[in-house]
Amino acid sequence: MIGVIGGGIAGLTAAHAAQSRGHEVGVFESDTQVGGRFAPVRTASDAVLPRQPPGLSTAGAASQALARTLGVELDAHAARTGYYHDGVVYPVDRRRELLAFPPLSLRDTSYFRSLVDDGGVPPFTVPDDALEEPESLADVTARSFVTEHATESVYEQAIEPLLSARFGDAPDRVSALWLVNRVTRQRTGSTEVVEPRSLVDALARSIGRDRLHTDCRVTAVGTRRGAVDHLVTIEDGARTEHDVDAVIFDTPPQRLARLTGDDWGGQTAATTTVCVGLDEPLLSIDRVTVVDETPIGRLVALPGPTGGVEQALYAIVADESGKRETESQVRHGIESLFPDFDPGTIEWSVVHTETTPVPAVDYTEHVVPQDGTEPSGCFYAGGASRERYADRSLDAAVRTGQAVGKLVAGRTE
Q1: What pTM was estimated for this model as a whole?
Q2: Which residue of 44, 185, 218, 344 sits 20 to 30 Å from the alpha carbon of 359, by its own alpha carbon?
Q3: Tens digits of per-residue pLDDT, 59-87?
Q4: What does the alpha-carbon distance between residue 328 and residue 253 come to, in Å, rounded to a whole number?
Q5: Pairing mode of beta strands 25-28, 2-5
Q6: Largest CA distance in the chain
């Protein structure tokens, strides 16, 4: 059996790829649901929502092809983006809207206008001639890249808040490659949000529910003669050993290090996401980056999932120091941003925390290779893999999962 530790998109895709090549698989997920950051959570009103909001990304070739293979369609809808500045939410998707964004000078706005006319996507679009060798940007800071192609004020007023919202106190160390990946994903089509739930459900059905071990914690990776031999799990309070021929990790790098005894020295950022159900909409724009000094870096609004809830609002806090914001702190943060907000409109709330690698300029030194993890027989498809480190898109997770699943299947034939 090929064991897969972690039931995120990459882990499920890897399991599906290996199973499609005739291998028995078992997925071991410590949470109660598979899907990783997109796993469904049930609210107090029985509404079902993703643990974290899906990101801005057009459905790429890999995820579309996988969806067709599984007989499902990826649900995608256009998204409106904006910035919160001095108590006002400014949309920035259209040229005339960008002109009204106060922090940018006329020079910067004119620069953006030409980019938008050429099919670019604000607040920053990468010139084509800068993308000939994108991997060469891995050791260039986003700040130096933006100031070279635009201005210092563009970075400080538009790009730095974007980076801080995702990586906390580390914006000036973030690699330009992450920024380029984000922007070029948007340039391939309209600004969209792709809902991965149908893909998660289809992968789970294809693999087989009996092969998905949820609420199951892997406590040890057993070896024999230097190669992986079994997994030790705790499920329903019982300790079980599962014989395995290979193991695929779709986990944070810290967990990989704990289970294999390896070292990992990359930077991480802790993220706290609080989703509240509102009986009155607060935002008319789907995704808002907060420019002002406040713990909340991003706000994401989704349509209300059930009757009586008009809007599901995700408030997201990122902090490189690893501090966890409490639910009450985040809710007070929403009130401070919107003084007219009535807390009485909150019907329920859900909290999720996670730690992710920061794609800093030295991140290539901390990439975990797909097949280079000790002991022998261990493979990696998690967030510190080469492709996913600087690209958190759905397509990057699918491509990584497929590549690792094929690799393991070939090695264990």
Answers
A1: 0.91
A2: 218
A3: 688 999 999 999 999 888 888 889 999 99
A4: 30
A5: parallel
A6: 67
